[in-house]
Specification:
235 residues; mainly beta; Methylamine Dehydrogenase, Chain H; 2 domains; four-stranded antiparallel β-sheet
């Protein structure tokens, strides 16, 4: 089942234009294993998923059709397709204000949806090439890494206003959150580094140099450690 999911994701990213139909796989889990429960047909080239825990909904960004499909978590039925900006690539959920944020890579913006009504409530301009979103429940802020601009945009979770546009190293992409220290770590693919941002002050604390292309991050709260995946590693 894991291999099937990987194959689907690979096909959605690289398949030819004739393969426009796309699906969202839903896996059922028990104490003894997992299996494919159902398959929901959405729009073309699904690129990101997030879950609305308050209303039990799943959101799927569709890169080619510039939409976000909303799926009912109880029935697995499609509720609606919301308009996003051009080429939606990332999603995140604001659990405090019940909002969904969608990063639109093709037009350097974030579309904000109300989680209850599934309507567009705001569009926020950010740096060029937004590719990844992170929600910080400690400060109620949303972080957006803009790959082409070399910046991280910070949005207020209540007002959806832009608080800061922080310059980081080249090609920022994936991020992770240290909740205990209220810090955000951003992997800079082109800068071979990790930028550390202050969750309170919305500023750059330091840059930790890595090696090769720093691609993804993960935080371990048990021993207060951040792990970095290096896309190209020579040992």
């Amino acid at each position: 089942m894991v291999e099937t999911t990987r194959e689907l994701l690979h096909e959605n990213q690289h398949c030819c234009p004739s393969l426009l139909a796309a699906t969202c796989l839903l896996l059922a889990t028990t104490a003894i294993g997992q299996w494919l429960e159902t398959r929901v047909w959405v729009d073309s080239f699904p690129s990101a998923l997030c879950y609305n825990s308050r209303d039990n909904k799943l959101y799927c960004a569709n890169y080619v059709t510039n939409t976000v499909t909303v799926v009912d978590g109880a029935s697995n039925e499609i509720l609606c397709a919301l308009p996003s900006g051009q080429h939606p690539l990332a999603l995140t959920y604001n659990s405090i204000d019940n909002k969904v944020y969608c990063a639109n890579e093709g037009e350097a913006s974030i579309t904000v949806f109300d989680g209850a009504s599934d309507s567009v409530v705001a569009t926020v301009d950010v740096g060029a090439g937004p590719r990844y979103l992170l929600y910080n429940p400690v400060a109620n802020k949303v972080y957006c890494s803009s790959y082409d601009a070399g910046t991280v945009a910070i949005l207020d979770g209540d007002s959806d206003s832009l608080l800061a546009l922080v310059a980081v190293e080249d090609w920022p992409w994936r991020m992770c959150l240290n909740q205990s220290a209220n810090r955000v770590y951003c992997a800079n693919y082109g800068g071979y580094s990790i930028s550390v941002l202050d969750g309170d002050g919305d500023s750059l604390i330091t840059v930790v140099m890595g090696a090769q292309e720093t691609y993804a991050l993960c935080y371990n709260p048990r021993n207060n450690t951040v792990y970095a995946a290096l896309y190209i590693s020579y040992g």
